[in-house]
Amino acid sequence: MNILIEETEHGLRLDKALALKCPTVSRSRLKALIMEGKVWLRKTPITDPNHTVTLGDVFQLPDTVLRDDPLPQGEDISLTVVYEDEYLIVIDKPAGLVVHPAPGNYTGTLVNALIHHYGTDLSQPEGIRPGIVHRLDKETSGLMVVAKTDEAHQGLAAQFADRLLSRTYWAFVLGVPLPPLGTIHKNIGRSLRNRVKMSVQQGGREAITHYKTLEKYGKKLALAALLECNLETGRTHQIRVHLASIGHPLIGDILYGKSHAHHPIMVRLLAEKNWPKDRHALHAKKLRFIHPITEEEMHFETDLPPDLKALQVLLEEF
After folding, report:
1. Catalytic residue among 57, 92, 137, 307
2. 241-273 tens-digit pLDDT
3. CB-based contacts of 65, cutoff 8 Å, min separation 6
4. What interhelical angle do 14-21 and 27-35 show, nearest 10?
5. 76 three-class SS
6. Residue 137 annotated in active site
7. Mean pLDDT of the chain
8. What sign results for the dihedral spanned by CA atoms 186, 187, 188, 190?
């Protein structure tokens, strides 16, 4: 069983990183596997649970010990491919599509779709996350890059680790930030009160989000805004947590914006029959990276999906 270290695990202890990747296995069991020499990295056993993992590392663990669920199977799910060559694919992911199988979502994911369309023409095809270099939340739409070869995977992962890969998001938020242009530099970690959530905390991992206001909505009151956000780091739920921490949660974010349920825009939006109750208004609009093989600079941009265009029209009515 191959375990790929992604952004959210980069810099963690090995036993803690594996615990995040293998939620059905106890941390004590994982620690024992490490100390028994059953966890390998690049053909070398890693026996220290305190070993620091790095983005792009692929650890090998015994299948018979860890896998209770079968490897994901291909499913005929349509994909919007923006770009493709023999090394990588750029996909415009729709809201509502989970990136990879996990407890509660073992089917119907982007990984299932990739396996159906590309089979073994993906990096780490025998793993549970073939081709996946980075991820978007289920309800976040927009651009993702997927690796076809191990060499491409390693090269893209290195760009994530070195903060060379650029991701730009458009976010519709409640209220208008002051100042309209700024940087949110607050550490993020797993919430101690609700393990589903992340939170700003002193002992968390460094997280940096740059934002600027593109549009303001509300003829009399500053009711909402469209922000452009650029990430220096890639923590779980980073934009959602950071914007909520300054009092401007994403429109539609019921996890981090519960206290704004009676905001006039939320009342109107939740009354709309065609707006999913858990769709937060975040779109990965731009993606830039250096091609890991050809070294060409690659830049992609995608339009807002129909639901966010409709939201924009609604906001202009206020």
Report:
1. 137
2. 999 999 999 999 999 998 898 999 999 888 877
3. 33, 38
4. 130
5. coil
6. yes
7. 91
8. negative
